[in-house]
Design brief:
heterodimer; A: MetI-like fold; B: alpha/beta; 26% strand; globular
Chain lengths: 296, 596
């Protein structure tokens, strides 16, 4: 009667994470979408058919209404007779920066706050979490308007404002996860080995938070893109005529019945981008999780 | 029933008065995986007669619990299912029964009690509500009648003050009382078959004894057939009339309990029985006589107390006296065991020793006073003292490779460069009986015993003077447990370490320890060498613990012991009071026992 030897012999080196992700159809689709959007954003000035702020005389009907998709303007025109496709391509720049950068900054701040508060608890934890609660209770839009009003409105300021407003939910979630993780035996085991705080926090707790972080991160993309639109609409965000996906929707939402394409196409773009990040994130989460490996 | 029960017809003839209530024949259970159906239980056959107890014994993964779940129709859908075979309860074929009809069979004709009574009871409903609901689900009676029946059921399992218990919630009862409630719930409708899946595994040994006695008495009164699923050969020997030994989903051996224990036919059964720790086996080992001077660790009046806040102002109203004025030495090269039941404070002492919980009093390790150390001093001290936890899966970071896990203590203490680390890690893995190839894998790819070996390798990496084994073998199968204990023993001789061995299992402690301390409610009530404590126990609590250990020999049916009413003894005291300190008196040769 031998002790069951579950793990036998050397294992074949598994393929790299990227290769394994590329084998997943949905993740591949997500990667393609992200690549297309990124390419569109980077090369917008060269691939867009027109200039984003160019108003065409023939871009409106005789009554002055925008043109539906088709013909010379592939996705139709907006209320001022500008080509929608061009504007969406140019808008991808802003939206990508906001969705990835601002959202990423929010995640980093939230994680650091949640991790610190959750591991140390006590006075530090209490102060940090009460501050988080305060931020949560404070109307985010009001805060954003205040911040945006103090600084000169620009894309980077908007990104910073969004990051400063959006980290609170992440902090809450990370706090809860960290508190339960730090109660676990393997953290106690690390402490008895003499591991320092930094090692425990970043080598042992943080990796366990990654799955949640990925989910929160991808969920945050659409929220932040729309928050940027709200700010722009209130005049404290990116200023017209610079196009963003959010402000295209906001400019045109009142004409939704008469010209649905003006809301549909940028809306679909946001949805697609968020979905793409979500699919890739999901695949990453599964592939990065070693406990899923070697399972039948 | 003396005949070997391999031929059911023959067995049935030998006991004509016992009607067959359950027959499982040719049962196959399989799980659907990506690679097709994988069999979990193959060709399972069993018959159960009225008033009989049949034990299915086996180690984890042997398919014993799956068999019982299949009988209850509770296999986790949709992946795991019965692929062929029949389960007949009286004249009803259970495998073909639709879920709606199965529900009326469950509880009414076949009832089940599970391992962990706390998780099988709903924590937000009172005992009374849960019992009456269970009764009313099967019998058309009024609420008042159901309540009456429920009280009667509680009385039958000898719970004190049954009417009061009806209004209580599960958390207000002790573990033993909760399991009694589960039993009363299972037996309230007088089922023909009671399936008991590891009914006493989560209970303390003295409580286990009470529950086993209760089950036997109830069976005698009601004639219910019991299907007992257990890994504990001691429980099998005490309870069962017949035994089926399972291994890897197949029946390994089947027969009357006496035959299985006296002349097992299969080598697996023999090995399984040989691996069971028995009281008295340790005496043959002979004790080392470690040097009493220069102890590895010395505890003097160590207490660990937790404050409980209450009232409007959040003042400290009560304190949990988890450990109360405990003093002992661990000598160089000895195995010092701390035994006691859950909540007695033995694990808290371990955690205080490694600095995981704050303590009062004086702990000296290698002559250094623990409380006076700064961060660097504490880190240096950790090289002298290491701990191995109970559940190796929980104690290992699931996202790190085994080689990194084993190398981590060396890395933390800056011992060796990358090349040396790898060599040391490989060496450590070999020492604990693993292969260096295993280093590239993650903990979940190993079995429980292998994982515990990884934890031991980690503890060993710093070459400490003292390793604390906190219930380190309790979660392992007996055969694996025996091998891990052998490993610990071999390492002790090789490296000359000391162990602080913490366990609730008297038999294991008797087998491996040099000196023993018995703890009860935070205090040591008896302490001495193994021969003193086990050969001549002085304190009644020690005697109770020793008497309650199930003996893996069907010819010895231990005398019944009457214990307390099952009330929870608690180490919680109001803030300005505390437990009465026990006074340890020398009973000769350093054998200390509390006055009583």
């Amino acid at each position: 009667m031998s002790e069951a030897m579950v793990a036998e012999g050397p294992r074949k080196e598994p393929a790299g994470v990227l290769t394994r992700i590329l084998r997943r159809k949905l993740a591949l689709f997500g990667l393609v979408v992200i690549a297309v959007v990124t390419a569109g954003a980077v090369f917008a000035p060269w691939i867009a058919p027109y200039r984003p702020d160019e108003q065409f005389f023939d871009g409106l009907t005789l009554e002055g209404a925008p043109l539906p998709p088709g013909g010379r303007f592939l996705l139709g025109t907006d209320l001022l007779g500008r080509d929608l496709l061009t504007r969406i391509l140019h808008g991808a720049r802003t939206s990508l920066i906001i969705g990835v950068l601002a959202n990423g900054m929010a995640l980093v701040i939230g994680t650091l706050v949640g991790l610190t508060a959750g591991y140390f608890r006590g006075v530090i934890g209490a102060v940090l979490m009460r501050f988080t609660d305060l931020m949560m209770a404070f109307p985010a839009l009001l805060l954003a308007i205040c911040l945006a009003a103090i600084f000169q409105p620009s894309l980077w300021i908007v990104a910073m404002v969004i990051a400063l407003v959006n980290w609170v939910q992440t902090a809450r979630v990370m706090y809860t996860e960290t508190t339960s993780l730090s109660e676990r035996d393997f953290i106690a085991a690390e402490r008895t080995l003499g591991a320092g705080t930094g090692r425990i926090l970043f080598r042992h707790i943080l990796p366990h938070l990654v799955p949640t972080l990925i989910v929160w991160g991808t969920l945050g993309i659409s929220t932040t893109v729309l928050l940027e639109a709200t700010l722009s609409f209130l005049g404290v965000g990116v200023q017209p005529p610079v196009p963003t996906w959010g402000n295209i929707i906001f400019e045109n939402q009142t004409y939704f019945q008469a010209a649905p394409w003006l809301v549909f196409f940028p809306g679909a773009a946001i949805l697609l981008l968020a979905l793409a990040f979500n699919l890739v994130g999901d695949a990453l989460r599964e592939e990065l999780d070693p406990t899923q490996r070697g399972r039948a | 029933m003396n005949a070997d029960a391999k031929q059911p017809s023959e067995a049935a003839q030998s006991a004509p008065d016992s009607a067959e209530v359950l027959r499982v024949s040719g049962l196959n259970i399989a799980v659907r995986t990506e690679h097709g159906l994988k069999p979990l239980v193959e060709d399972m056959n069993l018959t159960l007669r009225r008033g009989e107890t049949l034990a299915i014994a086996g180690e984890s993964g042997s398919g014993k619990s799956l068999t019982s779940l299949a009988i209850m129709g509770l296999l986790p859908p949709p992946a795991v299912r019965v692929t062929s075979g029949t389960i007949r309860l009286g004249d009803v074929e259970l495998t073909a029964l639709p879920e709606a009809e199965m529900r009326s069979v469950r509880g009414d004709r076949v009832a089940m009690i599970f391992q962990e009574p706390m998780t099988s009871l709903n924590p937000v409903l009172t005992i009374g509500t849960q019992l009456t609901e269970a009764i009313r689900a099967h019998v058309p009676v009024t609420r008042a009648e159901a309540a009456e029946r429920a009280i009667a059921a509680l009385k039958s399992v000898r719970i004190s003050e049954p009417a009061k218990r009806m209004g209580q919630y599960p958390h207000e009862l002790s573990g033993g009382m909760r399991q009694r409630v589960m039993i009363s719930m299972a037996l309230a409708l007088k089922p023909e078959v009671l399936i008991a899946d590891e009914p006493t595994t989560a209970l303390d040994v003295t409580v286990q004894r009470e529950v086993l006695d209760l089950l036997r008495d109830l069976q005698r009164e009601t004639g219910t057939a019991i299907l007992l699923i257990t890994h504990d050969m001691g429980v099998v020997a005490e309870m069962a009339d017949r035994v089926i030994v399972m291994r890897d989903g197949k029946i390994e051996e089947e027969g009357t309990t006496r035959r299985i224990f006296t002349s097992p036919e299969r080598s697996y059964t023999r090995d399984l029985l040989a691996a069971v720790p028995r009281l008295g086996a340790g005496a043959a080992r002979g004790g080392a006589a470690p040097d009493a001077a220069d102890p590895v660790a010395r505890l003097t009046d160590v207490s660990v107390r937790y404050d409980l806040h209450g009232g409007l102002l959040g003042r400290v109203t009560h304190r949990v006296h988890a450990v109360e004025r405990v003093s002992f030495d661990i000598r160089r090269g000895e195995t010092f065991a701390l035994v006691g039941e859950s909540g007695c404070g033995k694990s808290t002492i371990a955690r205080a020793l490694v600095g995981l919980v704050p303590h009062e009093g004086r702990i000296e390790i290698a002559g250094k006073h623990l409380a006076g150390l700064d961060g660097a001093g504490m880190k240096a001290l950790r090289r002298n003292i290491q701990i191995v936890f109970q559940d190796p899966m929980a104690a290992l970071d699931a996202r790190m490779k085994v080689a990194d896990l084993v190398a981590e203590p060396l890395l933390i203490h800056g011992l060796g460069d990358a090349g040396e680390l790898r060599a040391r890690t490989d060496d450590l893995l070999k020492r604990v009986g693993l292969s260096p190839d295993h280093g590239d894998r993650y903990p979940h790819e190993f079995s429980g015993g292998q994982r515990q070996r990884i934890c031991i390798a980690r503890a060993l990496a710093l070459q400490p003077d003292l390793i604390i084994a906190d219930e380190s073998v309790s979660a392992l199968d007996v055969s694996v447990q025996a091998r891990v204990l052998e490993l610990l023993e071999a390492l002790k001789t090789e490296f000359g370490m000391s162990y602080l061995f913490i366990s609730h299992d008297m038999a294991v402690v008797e087998n491996i320890s040099d000196r023993v301390a018995v703890m009860y409610l935070g205090q040591i009530v008896e302490m001495g060498t193994r021969d003193q404590v086990f050969g001549n126990p002085q304190h009644p609590y020690t005697r109770r613990l020793i008497d309650a250990v199930p003996i893996p020999d069907p010819d010895i049916r231990p005398a019944r012991i009457q214990f307390g009413a099952g009330e929870v003894a608690s180490p919680v005291y109001p803030a300005n009071t505390g437990p009465t300190p026990v006074r340890l008196v020398d009973r000769g040769g350093g054998h200390l026992a509390a006055e009583h």
